[in-house]
Amino acid sequence: MSKLTQRKSLDYIKKEYVRTRTMPGSWYLSSYKFKFNIAHHQPMLEKLKEKKLIANQCSGCNRVFFPPRLVCGQCLVKPDRWVDIRDTARVATYAIAYLKNAETGEVEEKPMVLVQHDGADTCSIAELAPGVNVKDTYIGMPIKAHWSETATGGLMDIEYYDPIEDDAKDVK
Amino acid sequence: MEKVGIVGFNQVKMYSDANYGRYEMIFEAVRGALDKAGLKKKDITTVISCTNDYYDGRTISNLFTVEVGGGYLVDESKCEMDGAHAVLYGLMRILSGNHKLAVIWSGSMPSCYPYHSARLYETDPTWERPLGYVNDITAGGFQMRAYMEKFGVSKEEIARVAVKNRKNATKNPLALAEAQNANLTVEDVLNSEIYSDPVTELMVAQPCDSVAALLLAPERQALKITDNPVWITGVGYSQEAYYLGERDLSISKSMEIAGKTAFNAAGIKDPKNEIDVAELFEAYAHEELILAEALGLADKGKAANLNSEINGDLAINPSGGALGGNPPCATGLIRIIEAAKQLRGEANGYQVKGAKKAIASGQIGMCAQNNILFALEGSD
Ligand SMILES: [Zn+2]
Asked: Is the pLDDT of residue B14 over 90?
C-alpha cells in the first residue's frame, strides 16, 4: 500500500464515541412560492374549459408534448405549434403506492400511472378512477379522461382516468 | 488525459442509526484516509465534498465541515449530487495542474431525516406534484414495471439481483448489517413488504448512515505516495429529461452515453470481455440489470442471464452494491472505492481474482436520471 509512514492504528479517531445524543429539531422554512410562466400554456388552459386537450409540438424534432413544455430539451428551442390530442390515453407504466393515514393508521392502495394521450409523445402523472381494481391494471390499458363537472381551465379539470373497452387484438 | 491516481480511501461502516455525531463521522472518514496513506493535513491542496443542505439541516452545508473535512485554509468546494460526481470535480481540480492532493468526501445520516419523504419534493411543483404522490420509490415502481413489460423479464429474475447483492454484502464488513443476508431466497424478496408494487422492501437500497473519503493525486505525486495507485482511465457522464413522462424508463440512455464516453477514453472496445469487475449504483434491484444492459455488458432484456456472481463471468457489485447499504451522497463514491479495492487486491472475502480493469458508477435523480461512469485500472 502506501510507501509513507502510517499510523499503526486508527482506533484513536474512534475512542471518544461512547454514545451520541439526538436533539429534535426542525428545518421548516415556512413556505415557498413557485413562479412559472403561464403565457406559454395559456392556450391549453383555455381549451380545458371546453373539455378539450391540446399539446405543444417542437418543430425541431416534431415531438408532441403533453403536458406542454416550455422548452424542448433535445433541440433547446420553444415548441412553437399547438396540436389537438384526444382525451383517450394508454397506461404507459404504473406503480402502486401505499399511503398510510397518519391519524387512523389505515393504508390506502393508490395506483399511480403514467398516461400517454393518443396523439402525444410524452406522458403525464395521473390517477385511475377510485373503483378500478389495481390488479386489473396493465401496461397498454386504454383509458379516458374523466372530466370534472365544471371545467375551470386548470390542471385538475381531469379528475382521474376511467378504463375503456380494450378492442386491441393480441398479436402473437 | 494526464494520469490521475487514487492513492487512498477510507469508509465508515454503514449503520441504519449510527452512534456517531455528524462531525465525528466525517472526521473519521477523512482522517482515516490520510492516515492509511501516510499523509498529513498540510499535504491537502483541495477538498471537494458532496452533501446536501436538506440532509444536513442547514444552508450551505459545507461551511460547517471545514475543520473535520480537511478544508481549513485550503481550496474547498461542494457538489450537491452523488459522491461520484464529487470525484469528477476533484479529478478536474487535479487536471487543472494546480493541485497535488485532492480529498473527496461524501455522505450523510438519513437516521436524522425522512429520506423518502424528502424525495417527494423532487417532482415538478406545478406540473407533477398536484397530480399525484410520486417519490423515488413510486418512480422505481414505474421503472421496474416498464422494464419487465418491455423485455418480458420476470419478478423472480429481478429478485435474484437482490439475493445476490445481499449475499455478497455478508462478506463486506462495512456493509449495512440489516442488508446482509446469506440465506435469502427469491421468495423472501418477493414476499417482503410491498413498497410500491411491484417494488418490494428487499429490492430497495436502504438509505443508511455513512461517510466515505477518497484521495486523488496527479501521476508523479501518486507514485511518491504509493506503489499501486489505481488510475482513472476514463469518465463519462450524461443525463436524461427531468420529466418521467418524457423518458423510456425501460432503458438507460444516459448510462449508455456515459459508458461510451468512458470506454472511449479508456480504450475499452469490448466492455463485456475486457472489464473484470463492475460496481454499479443500483438504487433498486432492477436498475442493476438496466444499467448493465446500457453499458453493453449484456443484450437488452438479457442481463438477468449474465452470471454476475463474484466468481462469475463478470462480477457485478461483489461488495453488495447499493443494496448492501445506500448512504445518500456517498453511495457512488463507495462504488469507486470498492472498485479500487478490487484492483488493489484488498477486497478480503469478496476479491475478484486477477481484477485488472474495473468500472464504477454513480447516479442521481428519479429512475437514475443522471449517470456517471468511471473506468479504472490497477497498477501492475
Ligand atoms: Zn425538439
From this structure: yes
| Element counts in chain A: helices (H) and strands (E) | 2, 8
B206 touches chain A (CB under 8 A): no
- Residue A69, SS3? coil
CATH 1.20.1440.20 fits B4-114+207-225, yes or no: no
Work out the minimum CA distance from B378 to partner chain A, whole angstroms: 12
pLDDT over 60 (residue A172): no
- The model's pTM is 0.93
Q: Tens digit of pLDDT for each residue in A31-64?
A: 888 888 778 889 999 999 999 999 999 999 999 9
Residue B229's closest chain A neighbor by CA?
Answer: A1
User: A 115-154 residues with CB below 8 A of B?
Assistant: 116, 122-127, 134, 139
- Domains of chain A: total: 1
ipTM: 0.82
Distance B239 CA to ligand 1 centre (A): 16
- A101 part of a folded domain: yes
**Pairing between β-strand B315-316 and β-strand B277-279 as defined by DSSP bridges:** parallel
Sequence ranges of the domains in chain B: 4-114+207-225
Residue contact B245–A125, C-beta within 8 A: yes
Cα-to-centroid distance, B246 and ligand 1 (Å): 12
